[in-house]
Amino acid sequence: MPEIRLIDENGKQLGVMPTDAAIERARYMGIDVIEVAGNAKPPVCRLGDFGKYQYHQNKKLRKQKAHSKTGEIKAVRIGLGTAKHDLEMRFQLAKKFMSKGQRVKVELKLVGRQKGQIDLAREKIEAFLELFGKGNLKIIQPLKRNPRGMEIIIDKVT
């Protein structure tokens, strides 16, 4: 890097200057030269305390991670013998999860001879999904069969 664009601690641009001059200026002031945008032409650097800069970057990252927890998946299990009222209770639970921004995996567990009754299983899941109403649901992962039964991942329409 023969030249860099330098910004001081207060955000004021000091202009384009040789890298050596910027480092010398930082040493004189007792602070660091921090590369902010290395892909720019010329690269953008800032004068400041590197530890403080790192702290603020980590703080931003933690804040982003806290907001990205909405991708968490909650599971709601139903069976072929699940009664209508129990389905409605599971529906309320799924609705609560989705209102918090979480995705819901609807699992239909099949045991023994039930594994041969795929049509009934599909109907049961469709009956559960109909409780949400048309247009209020986004299917993230379509209905698929797994060794324990069937599952589908849903989310609310945003």
Automatic annotation (TrEMBL):
Superkingdom as given in the UniProt entry: Bacteria
Record-level Gene Ontology MF annotations: ribosome binding; translation initiation factor activity
Stored Pfam families: IF3_C, IF3_N
The Translation initiation factor 3 C-terminal domain, residue ranges: 72-152
Cross-referenced InterPro entries: T_IF-3_C_sf, T_IF-3_N_sf, Translation_initiation_fac_3, Translation_initiation_fac_3_C, Translation_initiation_fac_3_N
Keyword NAD among UniProt keywords: no
GO cellular component: cytoplasm
Record-annotated Translation initiation factor 3 N-terminal domain positions: 2-64
One BP annotation, GO: ribosome disassembly
Keywords of the record: Initiation factor, Protein biosynthesis
Keyword Protein biosynthesis: yes
NCBIfam families (UniProt xref): infC (TIGR00168)
Family to which this protein belongs: Belongs to the IF-3 family.
Protein name: Translation initiation factor IF-3
Lineage: Bacteria, Candidatus Portnoyibacteriota
